[in-house]
Write a structure and sequence with these properties.
Elements (H helix, E strand, L loop, with lengths): L1 E3 L2 H5 L8 H11 L3 E5 L2 E8 L6 H14 L4 E5 L3 E6 L15 E6 L3 H17 L1 H5 L10 H17 L9 H19 L13 H6 L3 H18 L9 H7 L2 H12 L22 H15 L11 H11 L10 E3 L6 H17 L9 H15 L1 E5 L2 H16 L7 H8 L5 E4 L10 E7 L13 E6 L9 H14 E12 H5 L2 H7 L4 E7 L4 H4 L7 E7 L9 E5 L20 E5 H9 L3 H10 L2 H11 L4 H5 L6 E4 L3 E4 L4 H10 L3 H10 L12 H4 L15 H19 L2 H4 L2 H25 L4 H17 L29 H18 L5 E9 L4 E9 L6 E3 L3 H13 L12 E2 L3 E7 L7 H28 L1
Helix pairs in contact: 2-3, 6-7, 6-12, 7-16, 9-11, 12-14, 12-16, 13-14, 14-15, 14-16, 15-17, 20-22, 26-29, 27-32, 29-31, 33-35
Length: 933
């Protein structure tokens, strides 16, 4: 968590490079005093007013903030009150109450109370509690992108609806909407204006005219824009479309822009709410992507790439300070969202580096030349859909012109003696056309590339894999990209999880020739990213060269959906979601056909889980028991494991084993990531379950345990059999009631059969009762999933009757056991505190002569202040760093968000490992110092 109190601070933080342009504009438009960032992402803008603000002024502040979408929350403070607004609540009209858009606030607070309230807001945003408390104000469909997409979809319906005097075709309506949106962007940025109009804003200028003047003016404007952009965008048959555009349609368009109710439809929000000078160019590109999906949902996959997913992919690509010299390619650029984001980043770096030269006479000319050089040498894209190519150019033009003050655009380009360049190279066009700087190439990178071999240093994007049903063609495309990459070049792609992680023969070969740098597994965000998507995705960052070192480590991030994730495509990676492991090990496992299980086990599993899974995985698999004809073994809903084996004793053992916690644990960690339907286990996953014969089983008296299981099930079978009994509802209810204690007893016997220790049981039970039900594979992101419960609300979960005390007991008992084994006379005691307002919980460990019960103390104001200062001053962790706790003179403090995901017994075991390792390191350093002295 970091507070930026000036633009200079923002511009000095390279982690904000992708957010810098919206932040600059917001700083000026809203007169911000500070910005709160979490994880390198702006989350709250803070504005202070010296005068008491009216409702009208507050509504206007919110409208401007909403259009920019640079953060989640706007905090406005005046001498009397403070107000909180969401970027995902649409603006209110003048005649609507302020309460409609207000998230929260306070009145008549003294300076100390106000400072404390603001600190609590900061921490609750960091923890996610703020979003839980005001969940109704943070829904994706209220963002500027979603609202404008819905508005334009409604407009398309009005234009294409059959009427007596005609209507537009679907293509004509889409063309018109895209041009209208482009014209609105240019007009609100004052790059173009409506001749003779008094109003500054485009839609207001239209309201001043009658329908005839509006129609003629629109198509005259479109024609002038065609000339302004050298005919590379507006090449549709404008004259034919103009004739088909009836005055009735023009009247509906104007009513729509005003936000009127038309033909009994629900009224749209109206263009009064939108300010296109503030809407980021990346959001415009995202809008165009959504428009493409109306035409054909297979063009770009479900919903296109959300803006913040594109930003996250670029952040993953990272790079050293020389990244601005890279040549970038997007091999399936769609409407250009990656190209626009890259262009903005490169342009922002140039502006920062040349800030001191801003007052020079030739600054404008040099800026134009630098920006055109970015188009010429730094970014390229290829796209097979011709409409998408045009929309990508629209987006790039908005980004280009957005870099100039409106009064400077013409002067700057006149200084170079040229118009804005043509950016689109269509199929069959010549490269020597006048004023052509091809950035977007019409073509299909999956079939053939128009680029020279080894031309690019970085390939980045989302190469439309959703539209390619053939898994092999998707894998072959990864090999094709090698031809485009320079020696040692890198790629960072949004890619289907299952196609990469489950294709072990491909991995084994591919990892021999490439260094895999980082994988960001986004399976838990499948529904958040693409509500209609069936496959989860990941971000794959690699280098086109074998690892230079045999110890090369892959960074594997597996973020989980949390309450603090409120912007589509934005996934925060916490310290508990970060792992790293050797590429050599993964390559070897791929050759052994075990890499798929390895990747999945690291999705939810920790180091402790890996050891337990390795222990369980040493036993023979059910695959071996099934024999050659594996179709004879399957899982049938309501019946269980159907194993047609001759050995009745073995059948009974498997009947007890499959529903056991041990089997469910192994299946959860070892099954495939991202089943298409998300329902039930696959046969291939069932057959991977390990099961030793009684003679091999590690449990003491395993043969006796096996016989006890068989005896229990035989007795139950005898009790439940009987034709007259089977038919009565009473008997079925009785059997169901009997099944509960029977299942529990069998589960305990399976634990003993596998010789599972108490700590291993904690891992297993947490996976079965908490992690598995919270997994969002194939389901929506429910806020009441076990992991997202407050640790004070989890008492009904088995093993968590003591709530935070369950975590503390697991931690202290583990540490005290080790202390006893090492002969220490000291023991560890734990005190817990809950801060619901801040959404935090803490556990403090202290040394004592003997063990003691866990205590729950008050969350005091001094502690609250200390925690705030710790979080506020804490730098963001590096890619490989873990930050769990801090020491003071007499205690060790663990402070985290209040949600159970941070306070499980599994987390306690891993914290114990981490604390013990730190203590041993400190002791070694002390011993070394003592020897040296």
């Amino acid at each position: 968590m970091k507070i930026y109190r000036s633009l200079r601070e923002i511009e000095g933080d390279s982690s904000l490079i992708g957010h810098m342009r919206p932040l600059r504009r917001a700083w000026d438009a809203l007169s911000l005093n500070s910005v709160l960032g979490v994880g390198g992402v702006p989350v709250l803008g803070h504005k202070e007013s010296q005068t008491i603000l009216s409702d009208r002024e507050l509504k206007e502040d919110h409208r401007l903030f909403w259009n920019q979408g640079f953060a989640d929350v706007l905090l406005v403070v005046d001498p009397k009150s403070f107000y909180l607004f969401s970027s995902q609540v649409a603006p209110a009209r003048e005649d609507e109450p302020l309460a409609k858009i207000l998230v929260g606030g306070g009145q008549n607070l003294g300076a100390d109370s106000l400072a404390r309230a603001i600190e609590d807001i900061h921490v609750s945003i960091f923890s996610g509690e703020f979003y839980r408390r005001y969940s109704d104000k943070f829904t994706a469909n209220g963002s500027v992108s979603e609202c404008l997409t819905a508005s334009l979809r409604d407009l398309r319906g009005l234009l294409t609806e059959p009427q007596g005097d005609g209507n537009l075709s679907a293509d004509e309506a889409l063309n018109f909407i895209c041009r209208l949106l482009f014209a609105c962007c240019l007009a609100d940025r004052e790059i173009i204006s409506w001749p003779g109009a008094k109003a500054r804003r485009f839609f207001e200028a239209l309201m001043e005219l009658d329908d005839v003047q509006t129609k003629e003016g629109l198509y005259s404007l479109f024609k002038s824009l065609e000339n302004m952009f050298d005919g590379c965008l507006f090449d549709q048959d404008l004259e034919t479309e103009r004739k088909r555009m009836t005055l009735r349609l023009i009247s509906k368009i104007k009513s729509f822009l005003r936000g009127d109710k038309i033909d009994g439809r629900q009224a749209s929000i109206g263009f009064w709410a939108y300010d296109f000078r503030l809407i980021p160019a990346e959001t415009i590109s995202e809008l165009y992507q959504n428009i493409l999906c109306w035409e054909n949902e297979k063009i770009r996959g479900p919903g296109g790439v959300p803006r913040f997913l594109a930003e996250m992919t670029l952040e993953t690509a990272g790079g050293d300070h020389e990244w601005t010299k890279r040549r970038h390619l997007d091999p399936g650029c769609g409407s250009g969202i990656f190209l626009v984001a890259l262009f903005n980043r490169l342009a922002t770096v140039w502006e920062i580096r040349n800030q001191e030269k801003k007052k020079a006479d030739d600054y404008g000319r040099k800026k134009v030349e630098a920006l055109l050089d970015i188009f010429r040498t730094r970014i390229k894209g290829i796209e097979r859909n011709s409409r998408a190519c045009v929309l990508a150019c629209f987006s790039l033009y908005v980004a280009l012109l957005d870099l100039f003050e409106s009064s400077d655009v013409k002067a700057c380009f006149d200084a170079t003696g040229q118009k804005p360049p043509k950016l689109l190279l269509r199929k069959g066009a010549r490269l020597d056309e006048e004023n052509l700087i091809p950035v977007v190439y019409e073509g299909d990178a999956w079939l053939a590339s128009p680029f020279a071999a080894h031309e690019f240093d970085m390939v980045i994007g989302n190469p439309a894999w959703q539209a390619r049903a053939d898994e092999q063609s998707v894998l072959k495309f990864l090999w094709k990209l090698d031809r485009l990459l320079a020696d040692g070049g890198e790629a960072c792609l949004f890619w289907p999880s299952n196609i990469f992680l489950r294709t072990e023969s491909f991995q084994a070969e591919w990892l021999q020739r490439h260094a895999l740098i980082r994988v960001v597994q986004l399976a838990d965000f499948r529904k958040a990213l693409f509500p209609e998507g069936k496959r989860p995705g990941l971000i794959l960052h690699y280098r086109q060269a074998p690892p230079e070192d045999s110890r090369h480590q892959i960074l594997y991030d597996a973020p989980k959906y949390s309450l603090s994730v409120r912007r589509q495509g934005l996934a925060a990676v916490s310290e508990i979601d970060r792992k790293s492991f050797s590429q050599a090990k993964v390559a070897w496992l791929a050759g052994e056909k075990k890499a798929g299980v390895f990747w999945q086990s690291h999705f939810w599993g920790t180091a402790r889980d890996q050891r337990l899974l390795q222990y369980l995985g040493q036993w023979p698999k059910l695959d071996e028991l099934a024999g050659a004809d594996k179709s004879e073994m399957f899982w049938q809903k309501g019946l269980g494991l159907q194993a047609h084996l001759e050995d009745e004793r073995l059948r009974l053992l498997l009947t007890a084993y499959w529903p056991s916690d041990v089997a469910r644990y192994y299946s959860f960690h070892a099954s495939s990531i991202g089943d298409d339907d998300g329902h039930g286990p696959r046969l291939e996953d069932i057959l991977k379950l390990p099961f030793p014969w009684p003679s091999q089983a590690p449990g003491r008296d395993a043969a006796k345990i096996a016989q006890e299981i068989v005896t229990l099930l035989r007795e139950e079978a005898r009790t439940s059999k009987g034709p007259e009994k089977d038919e009565t509802p009473f008997w079925r209810r009785l059997l169901a009631k009997r099944a509960v204690p029977l299942k529990k007893e069998l589960n305990e016997l399976v634990y003993a059969y596998f010789d599972i220790s108490e700590q291993e049981r904690w891992l297993i039970e947490d996976a079965v009762n908490i992690f598995a039900p919270s997994s969002t594979l194939g389901q929506s992101n429910e806020a009441n999933a076990p992991l997202r419960l407050s640790v004070d609300e989890c008492g009904a979960i088995p093993g968590y009757e003591k709530k935070l005390g369950s975590y503390a007991l697991a931690l202290t008992s583990t540490l005290n056991k080790w202390a006893k084994e090492f002969g220490s006379r000291w023991r560890v005691r734990a005190t817990g505190r809950l801060g619901p307002e801040q959404g935090l919980a803490s556990v403090t460990l202290r040394l004592a002569p003997k063990e003691a019960e866990f205590e729950l103390a008050d969350f005091t104001d001094p502690l609250r202040k200390e925690i705030y200062e710790k979080f506020a001053e804490r730098p963001e962790p590096s890619k490989r760093e873990r930050r769990l706790l801090w020491f003071d003179e007499s205690s060790l403090n663990i402070v985290r968000p209040i949600y159970l995901v941070h306070w499980t017994r599994a987390a306690a075991l891993n914290d114990a490992d981490h604390i013990f390792a730190q203590i041993r390191t400190m002791k070694s350093e002390q011993d070394m110092t003592a020897r040296e002295s």
